[in-house]
Design brief:
143 residues, alpha+beta, Aminopeptidase, 2 domains, seven-stranded mixed sheet, 33% helix, globular, binds coenzyme A
Length: 143
C-alpha cells in the first residue's frame, strides 16, 4: 500500500485516474485530479486494485472516494485500505471521518456501515444523474 500526498507526482496522478475509471466506471479528468492534489491535506492510499482519497482539515477528514476494481470486490480490499487510512488519521489526531455517498449506492453504504460509519444526515437532491436528483447520505466515523 502506498501513501500519496500533496503535491502528487504526475505518475501517481495517472495511477489514480486509472484506478478511478476501473472502479467507478466513469473518468475523472487528470487536470481535476491534479487540482485536488494541489490542495494541502489531500492524501490517497493506493493499492494495485483499489484506492481511497481523503482530505484533512483541522481535526476532521473527509473521504472523497474509495473504490476497488470490479472483478475483485468482496475480498476485503476496501476494508484493508480504509483500515490503513484510519490508522494514519489516528496518528494525526483526527477525531472524525465523514463523507457523502449517494443514497442509491447500496454497496458503498453497506460497506461504510460494516466499517463502523453511521448515517448522521441527509442532503436531498445532492447528485444528479440524467436530470434525476438523488439524495446523499452523510456518514461519519469517530476515531
Ligand atoms: C464500496 C466498495 C469500495 C467496497 O469494496 P470491497 O473491496 O468490495 O469491500 P470489502 O470486500 O472490504 O467489503 C467489506 C464489507 O462491506 C459490505 N459490502 C461490500 N460490498 C457490498 C455489496 N455489494 N453489497 C452488500 N454489502 C457489501 C459487506 O458487509 C462486506 O463484508 P462481507 O463481504 O464479509 O459481507 C466497492 O463496491 C466499490 O468500489 N464500489 C464502486 C465505487 C464506489 O461507489 N465507491 C463509493 C463512493 S465514495
Amino acid at each position: 500500500m502506498r501513501l500519496i500526498s500533496h503535491p502528487a507526482a504526475e505518475e501517481d496522478l495517472k495511477s489514480i485516474a486509472d484506478l478511478y475509471l476501473k472502479s467507478f466506471g466513469k473518468p475523472w479528468e487528470i487536470g481535476l485530479i491534479r487540482e485536488s492534489f494541489a490542495i494541502p491535506g489531500t492524501f490517497a492510499f493506493l493499492k494495485k486494485n483499489g484506492l481511497c482519497i481523503f482530505r484533512i482539515a483541522a481535526d476532521e477528514a473527509e473521504i472523497y472516494y474509495i473504490g476497488v476494481t470490479e472483478n475483485i470486490r468482496r475480498q476485503g480490499i476496501a476494508t484493508l485500505i480504509l483500515d490503513a487510512a484510519k490508522k494514519f488519521l489516528t496518528e494525526k489526531n483526527i477525531k472524525k471521518i465523514f463523507l457523502e455517498v449517494s443514497e442509491e449506492n447500496f454497496p458503498a453504504i453497506s460497506f461504510y456501515k460494516k466499517s463502523g460509519f453511521e448515517i448522521i444526515g441527509r442532503r436531498p437532491d445532492y447528485y444528479s444523474e440524467n436530470d434525476r436528483k438523488i439524495a446523499a447520505a452523510n456518514m461519519a466515523f469517530y476515531l
